[in-house]
Predict the structure.
Amino acid sequence: MTEYFLVEGTEAALELHFGPAMKYSSPEPFSARLWERGQKQTDLTLFNYGNLDQELRERGPDKRQVDHFCECILENKAPWIDGWTGRKAIEVVNAVYLTSWQDQTIALPLSGSGDLERIFREMRMQYGG
């Protein structure tokens, strides 16, 4: 089964396509495209290695972020992503789940999206999480 996601913003949209074997640690490619003003297209796809062991060793889940976080601690540097930017990213991820769950467009910020704790609890109960 191929999955398709479209995250629409006021200035751009992010389009994601996942193939049938795509998993978090899968070497199967996916495509990611950024559409700005409906026309300018930027390919954001990360092309994976064909060997899963090599993929995980060199670009495993969150490897760059963890390496950078350790570097910031050891060298007293500012991180690439601050807390507010991270919070915004989590809001986008939550909006994707809510859009799928409620089958409707979800506006950001999520403050007007209802009782998020209750909604995610219901999702967890339904899907056995």
In short: The longest strand covers residues 12-18. The mean pLDDT is 77. The helical segments are 52-59, 63-75, 83-102, 116-127. The two ends are 21 Å apart (CA to CA).
